Amino acid sequence: MESKMNTREKILTTAAILFQKNGYHATGLNEIIKESATPKGSLYYYFPNGKEELAAATIKLMGDKIQHDIKEELAQNSDPVQAIKEFILDLAWKFNEKEDQENCFSIGLLALETVSISDSLRKACTEVYDMWTDTYYQKLVSSGLSSEKAKELSLILQLMIEGAITISLIRNDNTMLVATAEKIPVLLKDK
Amino acid sequence: MESKMNTREKILTTAAILFQKNGYHATGLNEIIKESATPKGSLYYYFPNGKEELAAATIKLMGDKIQHDIKEELAQNSDPVQAIKEFILDLAWKFNEKEDQENCFSIGLLALETVSISDSLRKACTEVYDMWTDTYYQKLVSSGLSSEKAKELSLILQLMIEGAITISLIRNDNTMLVATAEKIPVLLKDK
DNA sequence: GTCTATAAAAGGATAGAC
DNA sequence: GTCTATCCTTTTATAGAC
């Protein structure tokens, strides 16, 4: 399957996995080209501005992929409370399958690292989070919530999911994600 | 003031500030010894196991300092809802004063980085989070909540605060912390 | 305990052949 | 477009004088 990808795609997907798992600074360009079995010359051919440009491309890639997953999950349930709860439970399930390297579901580490090194990367991450939040917002509005209430709740959702993933990673245990999912009805009850 | 510290303390506090701000991998030992104006020999004299041992010590230091701050804030209000709300608003305030390098309030970046490089550092971070969570737990129990309910809510609080700080850092904007504080009454209403 | 010089490895980036 | 060899910098870590 990887052999069907072209060189640029191989570099990009390998970088995305490594950046997500180990972070920006812990991931060497040599590691990326070795893991993806591509020559270093190609990396700089496709990403002339080096590591930062490659990171920007991976942020966009991961952002879009996760966005797609969110939409897919939320569409499976007309009731937003149930839909969002199921989505977070799905995250919890994916967390336990995270050996499967296709399962990317967070850019938190990469985002925090970029804060102190590159304003353009930081902004790229901000845009990704905004995109995700807007998806929650749309779901809440479509179920009849006022725009104001939906805006507020979608931000809280975003922050809770981010926090739950972070704590789950640090504890190496998905129970915080499950607990968050269970708490969603209480949180959204307050319309 | 810094001159009153001994060499070990200078290294430790400087490392804590840099690790918190820029992360583990982005902070070089040379940067730490330069910033703290201490000789490299002393670093390896006090921390024979190098960077990892130094990081472990800073995690403990930051954990204890923040723990102290949490206790201090929560003690100022007998009502736990108000106390926790005020505590988060204080975080939001500190966020805007973060040029003051004394103001450490998160080990999130450091913690996420350690997940993939050192299980002992990861566990050190987990213990810090558990310590903080227990402080919220004690406050909730002391106000009459059942142990079970307090346990559940203290974990949710921990995760929301972590998420709010993360998103605030990435957005470079403390409004998510303020929004979280405002949401606390709704969350804790569900006893 | 303090300090400096230096080793040894890894990092990002570039040049230039093909 | 592909590939390799190499440069320069920075990293962690150590040796050994004082």
From TrEMBL, chains A, B:
Keywords: DNA-binding, Transcription, Transcription regulation
Keyword Transcription attributed: yes
InterPro entries listed in its UniProt record: Homeodomain-like_sf (IPR009057), HTH_TetR (IPR001647), Tet_transcr_reg_TetR-rel_C_sf (IPR036271), YxaF_TetR_C (IPR054156)
One GO MF term: DNA binding
Protein name: Transcriptional regulator, TetR family
Every HTH tetR-type domain range: 5-65
Organism listed in the record: Methanosarcina horonobensis HB-1 = JCM 15518
DNA-binding region: 28-47
